[in-house]
Structures are given as C-alpha cells and as structure tokens.
Write a structure and sequence with these properties.
CATH topology of one domain: Rossmann fold
Shape: globular
Low-confidence stretches: none
Largest sheet: 6 strands, parallel
Structural class: alpha/beta
Helix content: 25-40%
Strand content: 5-15%
CATH superfamily of one domain: HAD superfamily/HAD-like
Length: 178
C-alpha cells in the first residue's frame, strides 16, 4: 500500500493498539539477579500516545507478557485499555471492537513479530517499526522510519493525527510521557 493509501486509512482510525516488546521498547528484556524484569520506554513515544488520548482516540496495549513495568507505563500514559498475558491477541481485539462498537477499519495496530500478523492482516492501518521482521513488514501499510522503542510509536501517532487534521499544538500533560 502506498503512503497515500495509508493516509486515507489513517483518516478512519479511532483506536490505536500497540504490542510492547519491539514496539514500545527496543525488544530488549533485562533481568536483575532476582529475576525482576525491566523495560526501557521512549519519552517521545509516550508524548505521542498522550496526544492521541487528549485528541479523543482510544489507546490500547495487547501483549503476551505480563509485567508490572508495562502496567505502570500504561497508567502513566492513561492508556485506555491494557491487556497483558495474552499469547493469542486477536480474541482480545475482537472484544475491544464489540466494547467500543468499532470495525477493523477503525483500528491501527503496531506490531513487530510473527504473533502480530493475525491482527495486522485484519486492521485498517497495519503498522510496524522499521526493525520489524520481514514477514510483518510485507503486510504493513505503515512502516515507521524509526525502530521499536526509538520513536516508531510517536511517528505513527503523529501520522494518524496529521491525517485527521489534528494540529500539533503543545500539550501540557503534567509529566505524562516523560
């Protein structure tokens, strides 16, 4: 799909859904000596999500892993829907479609690896970071110029907001996204 077709698809988006590892992070998983898992998030990505929330979009995370760091990040950014511990993500998305009375064409999903393909094949705007696996890149209509955890989420948020004519005004968000 061309960039123009992606822009047309972005005009229908009402919900932005994200995977975590490799999308909101660079895919690294760090453990301390006690087995506690750590993740690093990008502040610019966070600001993009905050802008989307403040502009009236529904935001969601669907991830196979279950991690307190992700829960804290989702709370900090006021993510509308957080769904952790779901190896099979499509049933979760289908429940969200029902809950919010949306269609697949209203959904943007950003994923980076094979488990994301089942959703990417269905949504209106299939998105991935620049360092996604080739099989994912082949089916996406928006491929960020940035890698996961390095601004890909922000680039997507800006792309959708721009496609819908939402201005890039500065939003004071009391530290959210930072």
């Amino acid at each position: 799909m061309s960039k123009e077709n992606a822009k047309d698809a972005a005009k229908n988006i009402k919900m932005l859904v994200f995977d975590v590892d490799g999308v909101m992070t660079d895919g690294s998983i760090t453990y301390d000596e006690n087995g506690i898992e750590y993740k690093t998030f990008n502040a610019k990505d966070g600001h993009g999500i905050v802008r989307a929330n403040k502009s009236g979009f529904i935001t969601a995370i669907i991830t196979a892993r279950n991690n307190g760091t992700v829960a804290n990040r989702a709370k900090n950014l006021n993510i509308t829907e957080l769904h952790q511990g779901h190896k099979y993500k499509l049933p979760v998305l289908e429940e969200l479609l029902k809950k919010y009375n949306l269609k697949y064409e209203n959904i943007s999903y950003m994923g980076d690896d094979l488990p994301d393909i089942c959703i990417l094949e269905k949504v209106g705007l299939a998105c991935c970071p620049n360092d996604a696996v080739d099989e994912v890149k082949e089916i996406c209509n928006f491929i960020s110029s940035k890698c996961g955890g390095k601004g890909a989420v922000r680039e997507l948020c800006d792309f959708i907001l721009d496609a819908q004519g939402i201005k890039k005004e500065y939003i004071v968000c009391e530290g959210a996204g930072r």
